[in-house]
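Support request, please re-run this one:
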Amino acid sequence: SVGKLFLAGYAPGILLGVALMALCYIFAIKRNYPKGDPVSFKEALVITKDAVFAIGAMFIIVGGVVAGLFTATEAAAIGCIYCLLVATLVYRQLSLKDMGRILYNTVKTLAMIYSLIAAAGAFAWMMAYLRIPAKFTGILMDVSDNKIVVLLLLLGCIMDMAPLILIMTPILLPVVQKFGMDPVQFGIMLIANLAIGLLTPPVGSCLYAGCAVGGAKIEKVTKCMLPFYLTMVVVLLMITFIPALSMTLPNLMM
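Re-run finished. Output below.
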């Protein structure tokens, strides 16, 4: 159930966000980063009021999928159209003359990302044709039947997320079910696992996209990301070994 998967991702997502925020706070204190001006309660209410339309995108996308009104892919298109209308009609921060620049920047970023995805797709086809993931999983299962073995399959470092989901899900799902893991929890664990892979070279699509948008060198960014990688792996371990993190909300609501 896509709805169950969305609900199961709330608690792990919040946990990951809080963990990364805590790490950023520690760095900010340790490195003495400058502080922003304090915001009064009245100003906070005004800011929240101004952000209502922007926050609406989140409720439309997640709420629509959970309610079964549209698929995840349709939600992306609807969310994009909604954000475009809000930016042009409500906040008036975009106009028709800005569309050329926006489309140009979008195409530049997409050209790099799609080149990576194309190469990763070809590599994934070769891996699937040679049955390397299945053989690798079989070897690991012969060594141990512990969840940590599955956790260590960070193939996201060398393959893109989409082909990995298609290749690894039918291979790993029967294995983790033998461990007693619920398929919904497995889905959250798999996505969290592969999401870390999207941020790690050499095929970290999100890492390359972030470096392209920010104009930063990937070598420097990767070095700075090391503490964040450790934090994400710790949260991933919690998602893997504490089923209640993922399963409490979907079990209560569905």
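The chain is about 80% helix and 0% strand. The chain has a mean pLDDT of 82.
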